[in-house]
Fold:
Amino acid sequence: MAAKVKLEKTTKFVIVGAGVFGLSTADYLLQRGYSDVTVLDRADVLPAKDAAGTDINKVVRSSYSDIFYSRLAKEAIQLWKDREVWGDTYHESGVFVVHESTGSETYTDQSHTNDLAIGSRVVELKTPSDIRAIFPASAKTSSFEGVYGYLNRDGGWAHAARGVEILMHKVEKAGAKIVPGKSVVGLFRDANGKTVGVRCKDGSRYDADIVVVAAGSWTPSSFPEVDLLGKCLATGQTVATIQLTQEEADKYRECPIVLDFGTDFYVFPPNIDNIVKFAIHNNGFLYKPAPNAPSTPRTSLSDGEDGLRIPKEVLQKLRTLLRRVYPELAEKPFSGTRLCWYNDSPDDDWVIGYYPTDPGLVLATAGSGHAYKFLPNIGRLVADAIEGVMEPELVKRFAVNRETNVHTLSRSNEPSKELDLNQLCTPDDLLP
Structure:
C-alpha cells in the first residue's frame, strides 16, 4: 500500500458530491487553511433538486438513543441559530416525541433520558390534555387517547434546500471550486493502489492528493470498484405532501414536529408555501436497474415525474398515520409524493474515514436518514478523520470495515422492499 499522504495546506482535495457531507467537509477544510478544494456534483443545477438534502424541510432533533448524536445535535442546533450564517433556515417549533407503550426500553425511552442528560428543555406530556396543550387551539388534532410522550423545545425543522444553498455559496466564497454537471463514474489509482483522481462520465479527469467520496445514495452505484456490499445501501423513503390555503395553513403554522419512532411516522407544520410534508422513516425501498446491480436512486432527474411516484401500498398507510395526528388534513388530497433516497448503513452510523487499503480515498457517507441536521458540524468529523485527529472510538465507530455497531435503531425492523414499478401511485391514488 502507498504511503499515507503528507498533508500540506496546498494538498489537493477533490470532493465528490455537493450535498450535506461534501459541502460541510469543504467548509471545515477551508476553515483549517487548506487552499485547494474542488467539489464535483453530477447535477447541472445546484443544489441538486433530487438529493435528499434538497427538500422543503428536515427534522432537527437531539432525541437520539445514542448520546453521542444527542450531544452533536445539540451543538448543531446552537450553530443553526447563528442567523449571520444561516439566516432563517432553522425554525424552532419544538419536537413532540410520541412514546411507544411496549413494556420494554425503547428508542424513545433512551432518547428521553439523553435529552434530559444534555439539558434540553423537555416538557413531559402524560395525558391527552397535556399533548393537546402544545398545539395551537386552531389546529384540529386527534384526541390522543392512549398517547403520551414529551416535547423537546430545543428542536424543530430546517428549510433544507436553503441550508445547502447557503453553505454552497459560503464555501465558494471561501475559495472552493464547485463544478456542477460532473458525474463521477470511477477512480484513478496509481500502481500501488492509491487513489490519485476521479474520472467523469463526460471523459474529464480531476487529479487529487485526496479524494473524498460524499456522493450520498449514489455512492454504491457510482463506485463499484470500492467494496461497499453490506456496508452501504441506497434506499428510498416515502414522502407525501398536502397543499393548504393560506387560511388553512395558518391554523397549523405553530404546531411542533410530531415524531413517532414506534410507527416511523413524522409530520411537519406548514412551510412558507403552505405545504404540509409527512413521511415514513423506515428501511424503505430498493431499486435495481439490472438484476445484479446495486440499489440505485430513481428520481426526478433520472426518470422525470415518474421518479417522484411512490408505491400505492404506502399511500394508505401515510393517510392512516396522518389521521392519528391531524384527522382533518388526512381527508384532503395529497398534492405530491417523493422517494427520498438515503445511503444507509446496517447500524445507522455514518461511514467516515480513509478506505483501509487506499490512503488517497476518504469516505464521507451513509447518512442513514439522519445526517442533514448536522450540516453545520458534520464536516468537522470528516476533517478530523482526514487529519488523523479523530477520537479513536469515533474512528472505530465510523470505519467502513467495522463490525456492525450494536445499539437501538430509530427505525422498525421491517426489511427494505424491492420497488415494483407497476405498483406506483397514480394521480387518482392521491385522492382521499
The longest strand covers residues 233-243. The longest helix spans residues 67-80.
